[in-house]
Design a protein that fits this description.
- This protein is an alpha+beta fold and about 1200 residues long.
- The strands form 7 sheets. It has a 7-stranded mixed β-sheet, with helices on both faces.
- It is globular and about 95 Å long.
- The N and C termini lie far apart (about 75 Å).
Length: about 1200
């Protein structure tokens, strides 16, 4: 074994500017090109990836199809789901895979090296010897069902992807830049029309071409030994097979198109939102060997796209009349690389239909056929050097060459004028970005998908070796080619202005660009579906009765083959679960203080925590302020207030306050003047915040980075900052100054409202938001909840009027309410700025509401909030308490000074309260009949508790007289979404440990049902779990998951990207019906399944803790625990105590009612389908109306969910 692999090279990934690095060691097989690359990083996680360069020559999606089929079984393990069970029982996640344009990566992550060595042999057999069979191809990739409808997991996935604007844009730019002989000119995931003609035989041939040990690299990133012997022992058993692999010739990627069309390429995409389109540009980027230029371009593009002072921002977005909503700038790591620049939400004022666009295009072409040489000079283009005041002909934005001229003129202006004049500002930006790069890298280093993550960079190095012209004559790859990024960044700080001018000139002005416009077409979706319907009818009519019978029988057999049936003796022979007690977690220690005790000054804080984490790269501050006593009518302003906190504003500080506060190290020396106020402009404050923090955010909720689906806001406002400064108190001051003294005037509020309005418009009716936000709006009791919808009469046009005071927190912050509310705010402020007297009064009330929120924070001493500090090094004895005293005292000084310098904002009388009209008909518009309702009448007013770990504004379930199904149709949806929510009442959370110690609580395992339900849903949700296998495995949908949310009071089932929502829902019901039988339960749920779920849940717990110690510790401190260690102990005791009997109990209690016909069951269904599906004979609602569970199906208009807010 020792001679099988030789040490080929050693390198490292720098992880900071202090010389620290992650070692990279490369071992090459003695007789083949197969390599093992080991990158040693701290922490318990061990990532393993199999990287295979895979190229495309068509849109059939062969590499993507193969990625799916690999998981259906292998020659040695011919059992569907076996690889999933092995990975799940190895203290890890089920294996996953990603197909890129030039490679496919199969990934596993677990705790410890033993986990990876257990999974490796099974993974290699599945990858190198998959069972590519017609029945697997039918369900995983593509088939036609009994009714002529196209289905398949991959088809469902790509149905949405193929018509999404970003994916269409990306492919179009690539095809304009790369020749047809390049893999980048093709869609590796597959396009629908091409997938239809793909066969299993073609996929098998593709496997023979690319899946070879000579074309494979094994990547190990994490807590590995330099030479992980367990991994090499597993490889030794495969040595004969590896040695026998035939050579695979290396293919050099062709150069870019020699001639690039100067004309703009117009591409239509289906969208009902026809008001805006996108302008896309692309250039050839540097070769892979030129890392310095790549890093310099990334720094430059980051500035141009994100910094408020960027001329690109001022020219296109940050102006009174924007000609783009946002800018996306990126360097794509292709061979050669591609620079991509896109202007999003470009106004489409004069181009409502494609016909109009073509006519206008022809007209402009006759008048103006200008070339690059005719672009105006910077002086002519900009006149006065204030880019934000430039006026554009909005009717000409989509005229040929118009947008291109603006871009080239702006880039020329930056080179010739802006950069020399503002050189100090730009250089400071480079230095600031370099300072934050360490923290940024630490966040993504272990991310399996991020292009700046170690795993992806190593995989890209393997692809470059196989296909880059620069490596054609080299005999070995260069792994960790981007390992010196931090040294390069330091070198860039020393570059002069001429370097950056030359960089822009070479890559953006001298290089030939390609240009395209994404034009929305509201009729395209209907046309596409009409073609599908015609093709469906042709498929049905072209089949003879005998052929149809044979096809149906084959399809039944194919679907039946998806059933998981692994013999018990095979399961018993699997490796045991690794011992989790041997897993080393990151070291940390903490001191906790009761800040509401007499020894501390009165403040909003109840708990203070100083955490020391030696491996942290920076100091982190988090303050979470209770909202329990905030006036209910102010809740709706909270998202706007948080956006103001995160935005670019100045500070207004009363002179009387200066003597009461300590001097902040990040601000100039403040001294009282003859004026009552001192104003610090936004540019100065932005610079101060940039010097103070590498990351600064504000949010509503207890946990800044929580991605819990359905984790609705709690009664708390959180401010977060990460800093490399030694002055924790000054960084804390900057958080408090922004909160209490930020210049939140009319202009700032208007800008925040418009930004918020645009952001909400992007989310509405799309992706996860379609289910989660719609569900929250309908589930929480209140006007226009599910109960109101169920009782409404489609023939009537009625509305109810509701005071904003009656909104619970969850509804006030919901996307539907916020969308209407923010639009009303933006409209009122816009009119007020133009001099409208009535709007001016409304603007004053809006400003008063923002002031009252600030007054609430300044005067709040409720004593239930959290002040949390994470340090890299410990303090001297008593130092932690001294630090916490200084922070609390600073808060008291700032808040007292604010109160002394401001008059109390008076709450407006009831005539000025915002009024909300709720349309209760199923029609989008109609005559409104107002009816005042009280909170008591509707029964939706929530009593706010002062306990920070409760969610009073997010719990509750609308009163239903029977299970209710709500049916929506949306024109922009390419696939369907299905959801189910039922009430979930479980004891959860920690009781007060001052009354009952944690160990005493654990004696009775109070959360045993919570964790039993979590583990049962984990079994259902696994890649080849019961539910996912029944729905996704049969090709009815791409995504399916079950999510228990005890803190929010509901259990949710979400099915996304469904090609057949009716069959997907019926398949879910079928699983529950089957498991009602004791015999079927015993076959499906056993100790093997329980152990796999236990392994996954423990992995997630340890993984979350290891990835974000500071945030996780703050999260659980806020929820009543003594720290992260207590939380891990709590979870582990519960998870290790769950039995199969516990799983059965929670199944009967929480799942069986879903498939029980009982009018008392409060099940709420949501089914959102594309408009074209509702208009065809494929509408699933007619069949679902005849369900077995007494579900009343009700169609509502999507637009009728929007309340009409009157300020």
């Amino acid at each position: 074994m020792a001679d099988d692999y030789v040490l080929e090279q050693q390198s490292a990934f720098e992880c900071g500017y202090d010389g620290s690095a992650f070692p990279v060691t490369v071992y090459k097989h003695s007789s083949t090109e197969f390599r093992v690359v080991v990158c040693q990083t701290p922490g318990p996680l061990c990532h393993m990836a199999l990287c295979i360069p895979t190229l495309c020559a068509d849109h059939k999606g062969k590499p993507h199809s193969l990625e799916h089929l690999v998981f259906c079984g292998s020659e040695k393990y011919p059992y569907r789901g076996y690889i999933d069970v092995v990975a799940s029982q190895s203290l890890g996640q089920p294996m996953n895979a990603t197909t890129y344009s030039d490679m496919t990566i199969f990934k596993f992550v677990g705790l410890g090296q033993e986990a990876a060595s257990n999974v490796l042999p099974v993974a290699l057999d599945h990858v190198m010897h998959p069972l590519i069979q017609d029945n697997h191809f039918a369900t995983e990739v593509y088939h036609v069902d009994q009714d002529g409808r196209q289905q398949g997991v991959l088809l469902s996935e790509m149905s949405e992807f193929s018509y999404r604007e970003p994916s269409v844009r990306s492919l179009s730019l690539r095809q304009m830049l790369y020749p047809p002989t390049s893999t980048y000119a093709w869609e590796s995931g597959g396009l629908l029309q091409a997938i239809e003609v793909l066969t299993a035989e073609e996929v098998a041939e593709y496997h023979k071409e690319f899946y070879n040990y000579q074309n494979l690299t094994l990547l190990l990133v994490g807590a590995y030994d330099k030479r992980p012997e367990a991994v090499f022992r597993a490889l030794a058993d495969l040595n004969a097979e590896i040695s026998a692999a035939p050579p695979v010739p290396r293919r050099t990627m062709p150069p870019l198109r020699a001639k690039k069309d100067k004309r703009r390429n117009d591409v239509l995409f289906p969208s009902e939102k026809s008001q805006t389109g996108t302008m896309g540009f692309a250039w050839e980027g540097p070769c892979d060997e030129d890392v310095e230029t790549s890093v310099a371009l990334e720094t430059l593009m980051d500035f141009l796209a994100k910094d408020p002072a960027s001329p690109l921002r001022k020219r296109f977005t940050n102006r009174a009349v924007p000609i783009a909503g946002d800018i996306e700038f990126s360097l794509q790591s292709y061979i050669p690389s591609m620079i991509e620049l896109s202007f999003i939400e470009v106004p489409f004022t004069s181009y409502i239909s494609h016909a109009a666009a073509i006519a206008a295009s022809a007209n402009f072409s006759r008048r103006d056929n200008s070339a690059l040489s005719s672009y105006p000079s910077p002086v002519d283009a900009f006149g006065p050097l204030d880019l934000a005041k430039l006026h554009d002909d909005l009717n000409s934005l989509y005229a040929p060459n118009y947008y291109r001229k603006q871009l080239v003129s702006t880039m020329t202006y930056i080179v010739e004028f802006w950069l020399p004049k503002n050189w100090d500002y730009f250089r400071d930006y480079v230095v600031k970005q370099n300072s934050s790069a360490v923290a940024a890298f630490s966040k993504v280093a272990m991310d399996q998908k991020d292009h700046n993550g170690i795993l992806y960079m190593l995989a890209h190095d393997a692809v470059v070796y196989r296909h880059s012209p620069g490596f054609a004559n080299k005999t070995q790859p260069e792994f960790a080619s981007r390992g010196r990024v931090f040294s390069i960044r330091r070198d860039l700080e020393q570059k002069d202005c001429a370097f950056w001018q030359a960089l822009i000139q070479r890559w953006f002005l001298d290089k030939q660009m390609v240009h395209m416009a994404m034009i929305p077409d509201s009729r395209m979706g209907i046309q596409l579906e009409a073609e599908r319907n015609l093709a469906q009818r042709n498929r049905i009519e072209s089949q003879t009765p005998d052929a149809k019978e044979r096809h149906n029988k084959w399809l039944v057999d194919a679907i039946a083959s998806t059933k998981i049936d692994i013999p018990q003796d095979i399961l018993a022979a699997m490796p045991p679960i690794p011992d989790i007690s041997k897993i080393k977690m990151p070291e940390f220690t903490g001191d906790t203080f009761k800040l509401n005790s007499p020894s501390f000054a009165p403040s909003p804080f109840g708990v203070g925590r100083v955490l020391v984490v030696p491996n942290e790269t920076e100091t982190k501050l988090q303050i979470s302020l209770p909202l329990a006593k905030l006036a209910s009518e102010l809740r709706q302003y909270l998202p706007l207030f948080t956006r103001l906190l995160a935005g670019s504003t100045g500070l207004i500080i009363p002179c009387s306050a200066i003597s009461k506060m300590s001097q902040c190290a990040f601000l100039p020396d403040l001294k009282p003047s003859g004026m009552p106020l001192i104003y610090l402009d936004s540019e100065l404050i932005d610079t101060a915040l940039g010097n103070a923090f590498t990351e600064y955010q504000a949010c509503i909720g207890d946990y800044l980075s929580s991605d819990d689906t359905g984790g609705w806001p709690v009664e708390v406002m959180t401010l977060y900052g990460a800093t490399q400064s030694a002055s924790v108190k000054s960084a804390f001051q900057m958080l408090v100054f922004k909160l209490l003294y930020g210049d939140f005037g009319v202009d700032a509020i208007l800008k925040a409202a418009k930004d918020q309005e645009r952001g909400l418009a992007r989310l509405k009716g799309t992706g996860a938001s379609l289910l989660i936000d719609t569900y929250q709006w309908l589930r929480l009791p209140g006007p226009l909840d599910a109960n109101t919808v169920a009782d409404s009469d489609p023939s009537e046009n009625t509305a109810i009027e509701c005071s904003a005071k009656e909104q619970s927190l969850g509804r006030a912050l919901n996307l539907y309410y916020q969308s209407s509310f923010t639009s009303a705010v933006a409209k009122s402020l816009s009119l007020a700025v133009k001099g409208d007297d009535r709007a001016a009064a409304q603007a004053n009330r809006i400003g008063d509401a923002i002031s009252r929120i600030r007054e609430y924070f300044a005067s709040n001493i409720i004593g239930t909030g959290l002040a949390h500090v994470t340090l890299q090094c410990g303090l001297a004895q008593g130092g932690a308490e001294e630090m916490m005293h200084s922070l609390v005292n600073e808060w008291v000084a700032c808040s007292t000074a604010w109160q002394d310098g401001h008059q109390a904002a008076v709450a407006p009388d009831s005539p000025y309260e915002p009024t909300v009209l709720y349309n209760t008909s199923n029609k989008a518009n109609g005559h409104l009949r107002k009816k005042r309702r009280s909170a008591m009448e509707d029964g939706f007013k929530t009593t706010i508790s002062g306990l920070p770990n409760k969610r009073p504004g997010s719990c509750g379930f609308a009163r239903l007289n029977a299970p209710l199904g709500i049916h929506l149709t949306l024109a922009d949806l390419p696939t369907s979404y299905v959801g189910i929510q039922v009430p979930l009442i479980l004891q959860h959370g920690l009781a007060d440990t001052n009354i009952t110690p944690l160990e005493q609580q654990l004696e009775r395992l109070p959360e045993i049902d919570v964790w039993a339900l979590t583990m049962l849903t984990t079994i259902f949700n696994r890649s080849e779990g019961l539910v996912k296998n029944a729905v996704r495995g049969r090709g009815y949908a791409y995504g399916v998951g079950i999510h228990p949310r005890p803190a929010d009071g509901h259990l949710a089932v979400y099915i996304s990207h469904s090609s057949d929502p009716q069959k997907a829902l019926e398949a879910f019901w079928e699983v529950l019906e089957l498991l009602k039988s004791e015999d079927e339960w015993d076959k499906a749920i056993d100790e093997v399944q329980l152990n796999a779920a236990r392994s996954i849940v423990l992995f997630r717990t340890y993984n979350n803790a290891a990835q974000a110690v500071a945030l996780e510790d703050a999260r659980w401190m806020f929820n009543g625990y003594g720290g992260l260690d207590e939380r891990i102990h709590w979870v582990r005791r519960h998870v290790e105590s769950v039995t199969v009997a516990d799983l059965r109990r929670v199944f009967q209690r929480h799942f069986v009612p879903i498939v029980t016909k009982d009018p008392h069951i409060k099940a709420l269904y949501l089914i959102a389908i594309p408009q074209f599906l509702a208009d065809s004979d494929r509408d699933p609602m007619s069949q679902l109306q005849q369900n077995h569970y007494g579900i009343v199906m009700k169609h509502i208009d999507f637009a009728s969910l929007d309340p009409m807010v009157k300020l």
